[in-house]
Design a protein that fits this description.
Elements (H helix, E strand, L loop, with lengths): L1 E3 L7 H16 L6 E3 L3 H4 L12 E8 L2 E10 L6 H8 L4
């Protein structure tokens, strides 16, 4: 199963609770899945299910005022704030 941003468009707390509920349900079965999320609270489930969950991320870097991606899958949670960078470039913030 591959899921991207489960329940996107719903209330943030509702979406988070639904995603966490699904992951807890899946942890009770012999399953494999990939779930894409930007919610760091969901990523913290690794503490509850260390044998079941692995956090992976794609990072970006800002070099010479340009947003660059190396497209290398890395261990852990993404820490780059690329949306903030893009909004500054568009003079939104």
């Amino acid at each position: 199963m591959i899921l991207d941003e489960i329940l996107r468009g719903t209330n943030s707390n509702d979406k988070r609770n639904g995603t966490i509920g699904l992951i807890r349900k899946m942890a009770g079965f012999d399953t494999f899945g990939i779930i894409a999320t930007h919610d760091t609270v969901v990523a913290d489930l690794i503490k509850e299910y260390p044998a079941f969950i692995a956090n992976k991320a794609f990072e970006s870097a800002i070099i010479n005022d340009e947003l660059l991606f190396d497209y290398q899958l890395k261990e852990g949670v993404c820490n780059t704030l690329s949306a903030s960078y893009l909004m500054k470039k568009m003079e939104i913030i």
